[in-house]
Design brief:
Number of helices: 5
Distance between the termini: 100 Å
Strand content: 5-15%
Order of helices and strands: EEEHHHHH
Helix content: 40-55%
Strand order of the largest sheet: 1-2-3
Structural class: mainly alpha
Length: 140
């Protein structure tokens, strides 16, 4: 008579889940069918001593992965937003006191935005180019 090795198998009682076979008899432990069982392990394998079955499984599975807080929009696009702020200052100066500033700061920050692969790098480059063209046309 051959027997199957210990592991999770479709529940012979028809629950639709998986039931643990210890190599001799079926246990009372049942898990949903959707939960994958990569490798059949005996009870308590991989668990720290003194913990009940399943108490540390999720912690061990995710122990190597640290969750990080999502980075905000402003932090992801710092250089691009600096370009927009400088352009706004330049436009306000030109409109209020008629001082046209020929500055290369927007260009430098637009280049930094491209190097940082910011999502607003292209609009920042367009704003920087517009500010530069505006300054050249009105310089003088």
């Amino acid at each position: 008579m051959t027997t199957s090795p210990a592991g999770w198998y479709p529940d012979p009682a028809g629950s639709g889940g998986m039931r643990w076979w210890d190599g001799v008899t079926w246990s009372d432990q049942v898990q949903p069918a959707a939960a994958p069982a990569a490798v059949a392990q005996p009870w308590g394998a991989g668990q720290p001593a003194g913990q009940p079955w399943g108490a540390g499984g999720a912690q061990q599975q995710w122990a190597g992965q640290q969750t990080q807080a999502p980075v905000g929009f402003a932090k992801r696009n710092t250089n691009s937003l600096v370009v927009a702020a400088i352009a706004l200052v330049y436009v306000v100066l030109a409109a209020t006191v008629h001082i046209v500033v020929l500055g290369f700061l927007p260009i430098l920050f637009a280049v930094r935005a491209f190097r940082a692969k910011e999502s607003l790098a292209w609009p920042a480059a367009g704003i920087a180019a517009a500010v530069l063209i505006f300054a050249f046309l009105n310089f003088g």
